Predict the 3D structure of the following.
Amino acid sequence: SNIIKTYNNFVWGLFSGSTIGSTMRVIGIYIQETGGGAGTKQQVYYNTVYLQNRTAYGSMLPGSILNSANVQCSNTCFKIGTTSGPVMDVRNNCFANFTPAQTGVSKHYCWNTSATSSIGTSGSVSNYNDLFIADTANGRIGLANATDKKTLTNWQGVASNDANSVSVDPVFLS
């Protein structure tokens, strides 16, 4: 079997000037079918994805980015773009979305999966993750196919083996 590892990444500073709300425009980590064939496993461990409007970064960003529009498009920290691909093993990650309230149909998520009732094929696991949404007006913990999962409890119905994940502000300090 093939094992593909995505681990120890810190993803931040992602922006888009798009105002199209119906399509996901900003994605922190995107896992798609790899072409590895039967038995492929995706291990996604110890990653941090921090999505926030550009004003929160202050002087850490170049002026061209800092002066751009806030994120008004739909976005997610983590996305699985396949329903029949590899076994997903997603553990010990921090997916924190601090995008403030948006206008129109735009929403922001921690996790997005193409499946309706699972995070991947049989044997997939999600556990010990921190899935945090700061603004709950347009923010959701997850999106399962086209169904919003507003709370961690709702999300755990999709990721049925996710008993030890939390939804706690990770309190990033600079």
Notes: The helical segments are 63-66, 152-156.
